[in-house]
Amino acid sequence: PALLVVAAGPWHSVRWSHAGLDFGWHARRSLATELDRDAAELRRTTEACYAHYADLIDDPYPFDSYDQVFVPGLNWGAQEMPGCVTYRDELLPRGAITDTQRAIRAVIIAHEMSHMWFGDSMTMTWWEDTWLQESFADYMGYRVAEAGAGFSDLRVEVEVRSKPWGYRSDARRSTHPVAPLADDVPDVDTAATIFDGISYAKGGACLVQLAFWLGDEEFMAGVNRHLTRFRFANATLADFVESLAECSSKDVRGWVEAWLRQPGFDTLTVRRDGDVPVLERAGRRPHAFTVAAYDSALRLVGRKRVELGDEAVRLPEFAGLVIVPNAGGETFAGLRLDPESWASLCAGLSRLEDPLVRAVLWSSAALLVRSRDLSADDFLDLVEAQLPSETRPDIIEGVLSEARSVVIPHRVPASRTAGAVARVAAAASAGLAASVDDEQRALAWAAALAATSADAAMLREWLDADKVAAGIALLPTTRWEAVVRLASLGEADARFIAAERDRDGTVEGDLGALRALAARPSTTAKDAAWEAMLAPGVDNRRFGALASGMWIAEQAHLLRPYVDAYLAEAPKLATRGQAFALEVGRAFPRIALDPRQLDALREALAGDVPTILRRSWEDHLDDRE
Ligand SMILES: [Zn+2]
To answer: What GO MF annotations does this protein's record show (predicted)?
Structure first.
């Protein structure tokens, strides 16, 4: 449905021809150095994805050129117009780019390219079929960046980052089927709220399960039949199901009904009959997945494909062993292991050889915190005990992000927040010490330590030296994390922050300084930040930076009046337009809220709240319940 875009320069461009087509990468002139730094990789990734789609999809590339533009101030991560994709230019970071950032960027490149077919050639009829473009693009993005562009183990990123978002979304009142009914998406404001964890993360995960359950050949045959049939045409769920059913002897319609037409997710349970593990499913969907079995030293003993439905599945060949269902991350379901397996795995999580299994278990632990089957303390125990020896930066970053932005604000009361943040800092400190010979891991740990440490002297040392340690750079984003952290500790005044802004000299520096000024622990600083957020001309980026500095986890007491002010003013702010309304929702206080504040939120929701903000507030409330 994205039709056209006008990108006004001046641009710095890299253009070339390949396979009879004109390609280009463009960035604003002030990012010329960064574009030149990454041009070879961006071109290689683009060509590799293009070649892979040519192999995978019968229908030839539908347009006559392919340009990709890094633009400032884009509200979405990226946006696919036919033959021209725009990306937010944060994807072209200053300084060094980390391996995790490179991998995620490749996934986005592959995701957007898939939209040339899924969305731009074959287009949904109305917004209820948003999944026909976004779930497929989510699925294809990971698949093609890995198989085509050669970024390895991307399913790890899916498990630690994407699926937790999907599970969280699916446990809220706002959840909906991956493919809802047209009547449930009556207008464009409702449509704007459907670009969510269900349409992307869960939908993509459902397609992984569909391909695994059906077999890849039949899955792709159905997909190709659908794309060819609806080249430059509009399609619906029913059209897709028809194409798929023509290519398979399995009960595709039953599968679609169970997986795409019902909200919620199942839980896979392991119990023991004597020594024999027995798999059971709480829920109503058929599942196909791999079970991995380990001995008591957590060495892999065997793997097996299992199909689980209404009937329990006994695994006598794995008697007495530690069991992990969904070891390949093939299905979308919670895990409840038998106590013996869970205890062994928690004690040796970072020793498991397969990073995907480690990621599946971290994701399961986060889900258990959500359902209150695991306490925040137990989760932080696991972080402190296991994460410092984790070897994958993407797992480190994903788990720390879950701990800091979900577990602590949603499950730790204000009186204990400082202690919980200190535990994350302790894990980060141990992790950094353990990864001095691995720069990628060290960069991940340094970013977390900069945001959580109470050691002002150490942070100042990093800033003075402009590095974390010998051989470990202080990335510009981490540098700003450290400045914001110092400000929140009362260790950076306005002069200090202004000097950092001048030293930076870019728009990121302006935003970082705004954030740092707002983070200072005084009523004067918070008043000024709040005033700036209410200013009529504030743009989305500045508003977001101010909010991010405003809500500091350990400042819950100081922030009490601003929580009330936010609840009172936000509905008015959210009438400025769709993108700003999303930003106002994201500016929700990311701190522990007490029962009185949650009641105030419920009361505010009983009043007149614009559609997009209402959705965001209900989600924030549900995440805390
Ligand atoms: Zn997309």
So the answer is: alanyl aminopeptidase activity; metalloaminopeptidase activity; peptide binding; zinc ion binding
Determine contact, residues 344/298, Cβ cutoff 8 Å: yes
Percent of the chain whose pLDDT exceeds 90 = 93
- 400 in Cβ contact with 200 (< 8 Å): no
Q: What pLDDT digit, counting tens, does each position of 396-421 carry?
A: 999 999 999 999 999 999 999 999 99
Q: How far is the CA of 158 from the centre of ligand 1 (A)?
A: 15
Total residue length of the chain:
625
- Answer yes or no: is pLDDT of 341 > 80: yes
**Residue 498 Cα to ligand 1 middle (Å):** 38
Model pLDDT for residues 471-524, shown as the tens digit of each residue: 899 999 999 999 999 999 999 999 999 999 999 998 899 999 999 999 999 999
- Ligand 1 mean position to 579 CA, how many Å? 16
Mean pLDDT, residues 194-200 taken together: 93
Compute CA distances 1 → 66, 125, 604, whole Å.
17, 9, 35
**Domain-wise residue ranges, the chain:** 11-260, 266-346, 375-474
Tokens of 592: 């522990």
Q: Check residue 87 and give its pLDDT.
A: 97
Tell me if residue 562 falls in helix, strand or coil: helix
Model pLDDT, residue 1? 59
Ligand 1: centre distance to CA 80 (Å): 7
Q: Is 507 exposed, middle or buried (0-12, 13-18, 19+ CB in 10 A)?
A: middle
**What's domain 11-260's architecture?**
Orthogonal Bundle (1.10)
- In degrees and rounded to multiples of 5, residue 142 shows phi and psi of -70, -45
In angstroms, what is the span from residue 79 Cα to ligand 1's centroid?
Answer: 7
Strand-pair category, 333-336 with 313-314: unpaired
What are 560's two structure tokens?
């009490």
Q: Examine the pLDDT at 95 and tell me if it is beyond 90.
A: no
| CA–CA separation, 270 and 34 (whole Å) | 50
Mean pLDDT across the stretch 272-285?
A: 97
**Distance from the CA of 385 to the center of ligand 1, in angstroms?**
37
Q: Starting at the earlier edge strand, list the strands of the sheet with 287-294.
A: 300-308, 287-294, 322-325
Ligand 1 center from residue 50 Cα (angstroms): 17
Distance 335 CA to ligand 1 centre (A): 29
Task: Give the full edge-to-edge strand order of the sheet including 333-336.
Answer: 313-314, 276-282, 266-273, 333-336
* Element of type H or E holding 267: strand 266-273
Ligand 1 centroid to residue 114 C-alpha, Å: 8
Of 58, 112, 111, whose CA–CA distance to 222 is shortest?
58
Question: Greater confidence, 512 or 73?
Answer: 512
Q: How far is the CA of 153 from the centre of ligand 1 (A)?
A: 21
Average pLDDT, the chain: 96
Class in CATH terms, 266-346: mainly beta
Q: Do the Cβ atoms of 172 and 622 come closer than 8 Å?
A: yes
Ligand 1 centroid vs 195 CA: distance in angstroms? Answer: 9
